[in-house]
Design goal:
mainly beta, binds calcium ion
């Protein structure tokens, strides 16, 4: 199968990839979390943008933090009942339903990744360029933890992963940070 991975450079970009071929075997498999929790969630009318919306396979649905002010300091944690080996993480750090929502709300700039409660990595993401949503939607930000591909140091088997927001790109209308999807991949078998 073809899988697209960006190398773990300090700045990740949407729609910018390396394509890697894993041959005849199984490729990396996405592994859904059993639980998602967040420091806060935004509710509007009868809808809550809760944390499970980052792992529903739909870029149109989001988790948005509901704290006062900007999303800096907000966090989201995914948990697995069985420990998993993390091979790559794909992050969609904005409200990718459409450009209006994407730029009205805050987008992830710099964030920490904690595995099993311990800080592992800090990542900075390039902002989406206006007018390029269609191309940007081709690929999320891929963090690769494969040493053979110049990836980040792989974590030990994990049962939890936390994203802590360090900085955001400001929204034009709102001070709410939203994340569309977080997809965690296990190594190819
Ligand atoms: Ca979603």
């Amino acid at each position: 199968m073809l899988l697209s991975l960006a190398l773990a450079t300090p700045t990740q970009q949407y729609g910018s990839v390396y394509e890697l071929y894993f041959g005849m075997g199984e490729g990396p498999a996405a592994v859904k979390p059993n639980q998602a929790t967040a420091s806060s969630s935004l509710s509007e009318s009868n809808l809550t943008h809760g944390p499970s919306r980052v792992s529903d396979g739909n870029k149109s649905t989001v988790w948005c933090e509901g704290q006062e002010g900007t999303g800096v300091g907000a966090s989201l944690t995914l948990q697995w009942e069985q420990p998993i080996n993390v091979y790559a993480i794909e992050i969609w750090g904005g409200y990718f339903l459409d450009e209006r929502r994407l730029f009205s709300n805050e987008r992830l700039q710099t964030y920490r990744i904690l595995f099993n409660g311990t800080k592992h990595l800090e990542v900075t993401t390039a902002d989406v360029v206006k007018g390029t949503l269609e191309q940007s939607l081709e690929y999320g930000n891929m963090l690769n933890f494969d040493p053979a591909l110049d990836g980040a140091t792989p974590p030990p088997p994990v049962t939890s992963m936390t994203i802590e927001v360090v900085s955001v790109y400001p929204g034009e209308k709102y001070t709410d940070l939203c994340i569309s999807e977080i997809i965690v991949y296990q190594p190819p078998s």
